[in-house]
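Minutes, project check-in
Item: structure for the 252-residue chain
Input as provided by the requester:
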Amino acid sequence: MATKKKEKKSAEDPIKLALEEEHRIRKAFKDKDWAEIKSSDSWVIFKVMSEFVEGFEKLAKIGPCVTIFGSARVKAGHPYYKTAEDIAYKLVHHGYGVVTGGGPGIMEAGNKGANRAGGKSVGLNIYLPHEQKGNPYIDPDKLITFDYFFVRKVMFVKYSQGFIVMPGGFGTMDELTEALTLIQTKKIGRFPIVLVGKKFWSGFIDWIKKVLVHEAMVHQDDLFLFNVVDTPEDAVKVIDDFYAKYLLSPNF
């Protein structure tokens, strides 16, 4: 009997989800009068402003940090999780704080490593349909939760001295390619971007070389905007060597 109920529920779930999605789409296209549009837009403007203000006020005080990106789906015990934790731990011992997206998986590993090393552990969380919560390894005064992805991404770029990019999905690719675009177009100064996991990233890099470079969508020199490594030691070394080479202090 319990099995039948379970089967019925799983069959209904896709239908329910489809109906909810259709309702959201119809609602988005519903005609609104001018007062409704103006009221809605004004509220959004103030909400965006408040997120920028909170982010600027909190993050301006944290000092030099490196952001670790990667999949939220990686479980504790996975080699990627362990690598991210070790990288964060070593970053703290080299004088950096650690920033992540604040969620589970690789993000949790990064905050855990920073917390274990006694360093600054920052989480820039975001509200998602499945209610992503900040992981328990973030410093309580350094957890910020955003509604808007674009505000959150500004914070990553503005307050990070480097990006460590672990294996991940669409979100990780989005964060990586935005950073590369901003540096490529000289909208921001260059900072080190480190892809961790040569095997994981090899297909992506081959595609850039064989398709984007070959068809002149990007320049051959753009391949030098990032480094690819396998170990925590090499990941941290890229960050340190970058600032030593340019005689810069990794600060704001």
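Outcome recorded: Residues 2-28 form the longest helix (27 residues).
No further action items on this chain.
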